Amino acid sequence: MSVADLRVAADELEGQSPEQILAWTSERYPRVSFATGFGAEGCVLIDMAARHALPIDLFTLDTGLLFPETYALWRRLEQRYAVTIRAVRPAQTVEEQATGHGDQLWARDPDRCCALRKVAPLAEALAGSDAWITAIRRDQTPTRAAARHVEWDAKNGLVKVNPLLRWSSDDVWGYVKHHDVPCNALHDAGYGSIGCAPCTTPVAPGEDPRAGRWRAIGKNECGLHVRLQPVRRAEL
Ligand code: SF4
After folding, report:
1. Is CATH 3.40.50.620 correct for 3-185?
2. What are the residue boundaries of the structural domains of the chain, listed by start?
3. Is 198 in the pocket of ligand 1 (CB under 6 A)?
4. How far does the chain reach from its first CA to its final CA, in angstroms?
5. Residue 231 scores a pLDDT above 50
6. Could you say which DSSP state residue 182 is in?
7. For atom 5 of ligand 1, which residue has the closest CA?
8. Best of 92, 97, 112, 114 for a ligand 1 pocket test (most atoms within 8 Å of beta carbon)
9. What is the distance in A from the centroid of ligand 1 to the CA of 193?
10. What is the Å distance from ligand 1's center to 60 Cα?
11. How much is the pTM?
12. Of the candidates 174, 203, 175, which has an alpha carbon nearest to the alpha carbon of residue 190?
């Protein structure tokens, strides 16, 4: 589909359910990937894909810095749905990165750290795919507010599909409860949005769920959903 065709399709999909958007994607593209970060939204999409037996390649960006609870959820999801969620890892281990860029790069230059440990590995993982699915919602951040259900991802060179854009947090948690979807145990400890352990803190009641990500440094995206050029391995 051309970019113009994708705009037309996005208009048509605006009133469709997430399940219909997932089915639409699987019918049109032979190689579809879903990069999950194991948020509640991602767990919902894994449940939907499994429920409808959609042939979607599941993977996660294993930065090596995830919470133990996140690694435990990863295994629970694989067992519950009888799927494999592939690990996509950075070119460098945490220790190698510390040698090359200094210890705790996330505390000094989190954009660079995310570029190395998330954005570059994602670009490589998507190289063989026709389309990739994300779990973003429009009401999460200003940069996500203008997203369409289907759009051309010029940075990674493939179609990007966002089935949950129009859902609210209540919609997500209603689905989780109704279908008993496994979720991260840290949500019960006050964590709204969960990423790497060094960059994630709990949130207070009523606080923006993403306020615990990169708290106090004004960063609210890791770079996966903004139009930046990825760092390539040759630049490491
Ligand atoms: S979230 Fe933090 S630790 Fe994880 S890649 Fe980004 S800066 Fe590094």
Report:
1. yes
2. 3-185
3. yes
4. 34
5. no
6. -
7. 114
8. 114
9. 13
10. 14
11. 0.90
12. 203
